[in-house]
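Ticket reopened. Same input as before:
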Amino acid sequence: MATTKSLSRGVAVVGAGMSKFGVHKDKSSRDLFVEAYQAMSASVDRGFDLAEIEAVFVGNYSSEFFEGQGHIAPILADAVGLVPLPATRIEDACASSGAAIRQGVMAIASGLHDLVLVGGVEHMTSLSTAQVTDALSAAGDMGFEMASGFTFPGIFAAMASAYMHRYGMAPADLHSITLKNHANGALNPEAHFTQAISDIMAARMEAAIKNGSPLPEWKDENAFLEDEAANPFVAWPLRLFDCAPISDGAACLLLASAERARAFTDDPIYVIGSGQASDYSLANHTDLTNMRATRLAAQAAYEMAGVSPMDIRLAEVHDCFTIAEIIATEDLGFFAPGTGYRMAEDGVTARDGPRPVNSSGGLKSKGHPVGATGVGQVVEIWKQMRGEAGPRQVKVDVPLALAHNLGGTGSSCVVHIFERR
Amino acid sequence: METAPFNLASFYDFLRQKRLMGTRCTSCGRVWLPPRAICAQCRVSRMEWIELPGNGRLVAFTSIYVAPSKLAAQGYDRQHPYCVGVVELENGVRASARILGVDAAHPETIRIGALLRVEFPSGGQTNEVFLTFRAMEQ
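Engineering reply: fixed in the latest deploy. New output:
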């Protein structure tokens, strides 16, 4: 369709940090954003002068729904001392802060700015699960798609049914994603859940002994994940442990022009590819077993970066549901359609495997404060590429990494590719 | 010829009149559901309403165990799930819809490919209207 697009000048990440994702009943979006900003500031090797920042882009899905607060960008800018800079909120549902990164990248590549703050934030846990279900459903087409009673998990569950029908995957094949991402999250102190599934089983067993209730008879982790009492259905075939949790959290990046990047650090991470695409509601997707928006966003990012899927050593992908990670790893070109779940089962995407996916724990275990997720993914990439991921540091060297951030029912997707030189 | 505006309000008005209607681009012939004023295939703004086939097949589905608050208020919950899915009509047009006539509490018994027929809303004008299909075979 179009010729390959390029950035007019280079852009680099020179700092990245996040709040702990989880349940923060006593904090607001503003408090969490301040924590993320402070973590980001601490990560800038040579430090920076606040007065050098020129603009603020913040991803946030719906502070109106969740906290009754609209127009949150200037409030967040104020909280970190950046008024009177231009401050803009970017909204693309769960892809909001991936889209905010893209706005920051474009602002620098255009020459308009040299240093910008890009953040993402969401505070979701003050609402009930039913209210959050309503709020997230609103990221679909409320007039038609969701009117019949679809929910957000329901959309991905329906995709799973079509995928199982076409490729012969069984519902139990989804467990490998849950097990892997919880194992990774257990090593991430900033994750919402810092327990492997085996840890959760042990804790429940201990509680049953303590309470004198009947002891569960799980022979292994898969049996736990198949237990209706321990892991009930949300939208068949998706169970509770197939779904990312409802989380609070914030994340921040400092983006600089490539020519200025080394003023802040000897080890910047360059943004070499950026792609974004949209799509129809689910029923009008060209294929119910993949996400065209992911494929198009990835294609644009790969072309801009001049790299192929096989060059990517590490990826953070949008596993809002287990099936979403499987489909994403196929749409991003890592694996052939219909084989993503087998690759996960075979350990290819494990933290110590040849192509780690969601070493952070992913949305499933790290948590999914929706507006913060896209930037949160890049915080992990920053740490892994620089060798700062501690006990969860991947075994492979990571010169190239990819972040995949999906919005709504797959109707938005943002992909970024990063290089360490 | 129908002259109703090419929008969702018209679609639901037709549905209340027991008519399943979509829009067809008079330039390229592509049929769209939900209805739209501008063709996303050829970008021309010359639509017409057409009656859609009431028969189709189930191509994707789920049973919803955690309902949105509106449906939770109607009694749907983990013990009382309901089925929604994507229907492909005989002319290839797809839509998301509530699926009746299946055992939502036993989703493993629901088959992709099941034949479905549109079920029009009953009740007064004030009732909330949404697209519903019923399984023809069980």
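The longest helix of chain B spans residues 8-16. The beta strands of chain B are 21-25, 31-32, 47-51, 55-64, 82-89, 94-100, 115-118, 132-135. Please confirm and we'll close it.
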